[in-house]
Specification:
Keywords: Membrane, Transmembrane, Transmembrane helix. By secondary structure, this protein is α+β, with helices and mostly antiparallel strands. The chain contains 3 helices and 7 strands; from the N terminus they run ββααββαβββ.
Length: 123
């Protein structure tokens, strides 16, 4: 599940997130946090963006779907330095659910397109 609560310097909640999906949970949650909080993507865009997962054992990187030209450079670059990889065409990645207060648009919530569902919250 990897339930994660991120607080700001004043101990106010910035983001709450978690996911379902076996071994791909931790990378899905980490990518979502990085894209939303560090790269300042809105929560829904960060949630829906393509994902990368490295299993470590076996030593294999899995890329979700077809990447842009820049993404393909990443795939090729990792392959050139010895990484094995597969490009998965189905939504077999972990499905996350999140709520955030990080951006100026107030409280936002998002459920993952990789699994049916929706978001509702009271403020």
């Amino acid at each position: 599940m990897c339930p994660t609560i991120i607080l700001d310097d004043n101990d106010d909640v910035l983001m709450i997130t978690g996911a379902a999906g076996g071994t791909k949970i931790t990378t899905a949650v980490a990518l979502l946090i990085v894209k939303h909080l560090w790269f300042n993507m809105d929560l829904k865009s960060a949630m829906d963006d393509k994902r990368i997962h490295h299993q470590l054992f076996p030593m294999q990187i899995t890329f979700e779907g077809v990447f842009s030209t820049e993404g393909l450079h990443l795939v090729e670059g990792l392959h050139d330095i010895g990484h094995n990889y597969t490009i998965q065409q189905t939504d077999g990645f972990a499905a996350a659910t999140s709520i955030s207060t990080h951006r100026i648009d107030g409280v936002t919530g998002s459920s993952d397109k990789r699994r049916p569902g929706g978001v509702s919250y009271l403020y």
